[in-house]
Amino acid sequence: MGGLDGEKKQLIHKLVNFRMKLGKKTRVRAIFHDTFHRLARTDRDGIELISDALENVKPVCEVAKVRITGIIYDVLGVVDRDRQQTLAVRWILDEALKSKKKSKNSSRLEECLFAQIMDAYRKRGDVRKKREDLHRLASTNRSYAYFRWW
Q: Mean pLDDT over all residues of the chain?
């Protein structure tokens, strides 16, 4: 990772650390190494492809539940940059795991992760749908934005 800038290194570390379970970082690095090799076979750089896919999936706003005088309102809020990236990474990895569990033939996690990244890059798939659903929910509840003083 010598030729990468700080933001791209942080992105790779975030991807690896989100997927890591029980301290098995070498296993997760092998999964991402295979995924990067699959991405390298496409016409673009693997890291650039992942960062563009995350940009396409990042939510701009989110909804928080606020209780005022016994009534719970869904209040619109703006998402910070770090949280946007965290949510995008989490959504892509979760959808890759779901698609791995759903597949009847024993597909590998590398294949599912590659498919989710390519779907996010092409602005389609379940992760993009999740982002659009969140934005739709936020736009329907924007009338409660004046409760955003929490």
A: 86
Give the separation between CA 22 and CA 44, rounded to whole angstroms. Answer: 33
Q: Determine contact, residues 84/8, Cβ cutoff 8 Å.
A: no
Nearest to 139 by CA among 59, 52, 56, 82: 59
Specify whether the CB–CB gap between 61 and 135 falls below 8 A. Answer: yes
pLDDT digits (tens, 9 = 90+) for 80-113: 999 999 999 999 999 998 988 888 776 788 899 9
Beta bridge pairs of residue 61? 78
Q: Is this structure's pTM higher than 0.70? A: yes
Helix segments in the chain, DSSP class H:
6-19, 25-40, 46-57, 81-102, 109-121, 126-140
- Higher per-residue confidence, 145 vs 52: 52
What contacts 117, CB < 8 A, 6 or more positions away?
35, 39, 49, 50, 53, 92
The amino acid sitting at 131 is R
Pair 140, 75: CB distance under 8 Å: no
Element (H, E) at 74: strand 71-78
What is the DSSP-derived secondary structure letter of residue 106?
-
Torsion of CA 70, 76, 77, 79, to 10 degrees: 130
